Amino acid sequence: MHVLVLGAAGMLGRKLVERIAAEGGLGGRPVDRLTLHDIVTPVPPAGLTISSTIHASDLAQGDNAARLVAARPDIIIHLAAVVSGEAEANFELGYHVNLDGTLKLFEAIRGVGDGYCPRVVFTSSIAVYGAPYPEPIPDDFNLTPLTSYGAQKAMGEFLLADYSRRGFLDGVGLRLPTICVRPGKPNKAASGFFSGIIREPLAGMEAILPVSEDVRHWFASPRAAIGFIVHAAGLDTRPLGQRRSFALPGVAATVGEQIEALRRVAGDKVARRIRREPDETIIRIVAGWPRSFDPQRALALGFAAETSFDEIIRAHIADELGGTFVA
Amino acid sequence: MHVLVLGAAGMLGRKLVERIAAEGGLGGRPVDRLTLHDIVTPVPPAGLTISSTIHASDLAQGDNAARLVAARPDIIIHLAAVVSGEAEANFELGYHVNLDGTLKLFEAIRGVGDGYCPRVVFTSSIAVYGAPYPEPIPDDFNLTPLTSYGAQKAMGEFLLADYSRRGFLDGVGLRLPTICVRPGKPNKAASGFFSGIIREPLAGMEAILPVSEDVRHWFASPRAAIGFIVHAAGLDTRPLGQRRSFALPGVAATVGEQIEALRRVAGDKVARRIRREPDETIIRIVAGWPRSFDPQRALALGFAAETSFDEIIRAHIADELGGTFVA
Question: A91–B161: do the CB atoms touch at under 8 Å?
Fold first, then answer.
């Protein structure tokens, strides 16, 4: 089986390729060929034994997308995107990468013709939702994005559904929860603190908390996110009907509950490395974000995530910190 | 006030321009300049006294959209679209006109800059909905189009909302009910019979009914549709928040109720000019269409339609048949 990963240099892309390399397969089927693509050159994991091809190009430009799908990959994992904060700061770039890039990819797939109909896993986001909404948000609630990123992801979902209905591809759209604990350095994303208040204290560093402890949000670990993608790659899509995208299981936790979980898992000294420093801009942005979901469709389809924030923290310690932390 | 009408050669476009001409204004404000655009040359109504400019071009091509908005029209009525059946039969054409055309228009508006922020009325459609759904469909139900046309209109709605949120335009998206009674010749649209079974008998001709009499659907007259557009042009958009598009009031009627209304308004002899000829393809297509709505937002915003199918038939007789019909 030939798998094409778009956005392979990103956090999820790298973890996905590592998992494919470790298992020698995806969604229960062996992989004998990997094509890795990103706007910057993706680096395959050390010791990869699957035959691989590396591409760096702008998916939305010229015939780059057509070149990537010409070899008729069986599964295409489309993770390539400009993130929320960047799409908001740079309007043109967000539409270029998130809308034009997706359009170009799907058109390239359609252009192959001759019955070609690959599985396409498209990572959407809970950013397709925006306040006001009920709690929890049901599966049939309307999409009301409050950011350009969310609007672009919602449009990608409609393209995915229409190209699937037409038989050009076999799409699954995953509205990923906020990924937490995101590894790496702190970044300027408005959501960054949700990971920062766990990641920095476990590394012995101070973290800034810009919102109040009663802010509730919807989380899954990087490990769970990779699990969603792998499950979607091998999913029987017949039960989806024409509704190809859906919300996923996650953990609804307040910031206070995150901190309590950190205290339980790592002790009080670690949990005390959080400094409260309210930021009105972040408070205002986060107020429009979804807090909890009732993802019945995804659960019925066999998607699974953590069931407590303690588990999310333990997954971070195991997967990123080699099982230890700075007590 | 300068008004730009896109799709001015279509049925709604012509009726809208006639109304602007008759009233000398739109949404309660005087109009001193009209720009009419379509892919074919629109013909202004006889005796039009408002200064007008006529354009025929492909909105999605080159800088045609930029040329149309360079004069900074205050109100833009965006009716230009390839209809449902055509967008389904010709995939490329549907995306070109309905998605690319809308993108080009909004980008042209953004490109004017310098604080330019016109009111944009965008005609979406109940084709953004698809089965299964509750009856009636509530305002916060998700968009699940089952046609390429519906998917393209849904994407137009997300663009409208995001460009409005960014302050590039001030958008109102109208999810028009099925327009009935549509004047003119029978066409091959799957929905054509809903109008045909009223229009042809009133003209002394036989009409074909391809579905059973218990099929329920959601209707408004051409007169009501023009009323929606005029109201949207003058609407205070502040109560919309970020949800710029919404379903509209209409009449939920079964085919049997349509025929009963025809009998009440025009007599039994007219109503007997309908011949039952089941068509499995049309039966299957129509089964996925929405049947009724609970359009609370539109009602609160002051949008109004007919309240019975009898009224819809009377509007057709008054507006299209000079007050008479073939008894």
Answer: no
Confidence of residue B187 (pLDDT cuts 50, 70, 90): confident
Q: What pLDDT, in 10s, does the model give residues B220-235?
A: 999 999 999 999 999 9
CATH of B2-177+221-247, one of 3.40.50.720, 3.60.130.10, 3.40.50.2300, 3.40.50.300: 3.40.50.720
Mean pLDDT in residue range B66-73: 97
From the CB of residue A268, how many other CB atoms can be counted at a distance below 10 Å? 9
Nearest to A243 among B144, B154, B242 (CB): B144
A285 pLDDT band (50/70/90 cuts)?
Answer: confident
* The CATH homologous superfamily of the domain defined by A2-176+221-247: NAD(P)-binding Rossmann-like Domain (3.40.50.720)
Active site residue A163: no
Q: How far is A297 from chain B (nearest CA, A)?
A: 14
For residue A251, give both structure tokens: 């953990």
The answer to whether the CB of B4 falls within 8 A of the CB of B68 is: yes
φ/ψ of A4, rounded to 5, equals -105, 125
Contacts of B141 in chain A (CB under 8 A): 140-142
**Which H or E run includes B107?**
helix B101-112
Cβ-nearest to B158 among A154, A162, A165: A154
Positions of CATH 3.40.50.720 in chain B: 2-177+221-247
Cβ neighbours of A162 in B, within 8 Å: 145, 148, 151
Quickly name the fold that domain B192-218+250-320 has: UDP-galactose 4-epimerase; domain 1 (3.90.25)
Print burial letters for B102-131: b (CB count within 10 Å at least 16), e (below 16). Answer: bbbbbbbbbebeeeebbbbbbbbbbbbbbe
Answer yes or no: do B166 and A143 touch at CB < 8 A.
Answer: no
Radius of gyration for chain A, computed over Cα atoms and rounded to the nearest angstrom: 19
Contact state of B151 with A144 under an 8 Å Cβ cutoff: no
What pLDDT digit, counting tens, does each position of A83-99 carry?
888 999 999 999 999 99
Selected residues 81-110 of chain B with any CB under 8 Å from a CB in chain A: 91
The DSSP secondary-structure symbol of A26 reads E
Provide the mean pLDDT of chain B: 96
Are B146 and A91 within 8 A, CB to CB?
Answer: no
Let me know the angle formed at the C-alpha of B152 by B149 and B153, rounded to the nearest 5 degrees: 85
Inter-chain residue contact B146 with A242, CB threshold 8 Å? yes
DSSP B10: S
B146 touches chain A (CB under 8 A): yes
Q: E strand or H helix at B256, and its extent?
A: helix B255-266
Contact call for B243 and A159, based on CB within 8 A: no
Task: Say if A162 is an interface residue toward chain B (CB within 8 Å).
Answer: yes
pLDDT at residue number B315: 98
Q: Which residues of A fall within a CB distance of 8 Å from B162?
A: 145, 148, 151
* A143–chain B nearest CA distance, Å: 6
**Is A144 part of the contact surface with chain B (CB cutoff 8 Å)?**
yes
Enumerate the H helices of chain A as residue ranges.
11-23, 64-69, 84-89, 91-94, 101-112, 148-165, 192-202, 222-233, 255-266, 268-271, 280-287, 296-300, 309-320
Measured between alpha carbons, how far is A77 from A10 in angstroms, rounded to an integer?
12
Model ipTM value: 0.96
Give pLDDT, residue A272. Answer: 97
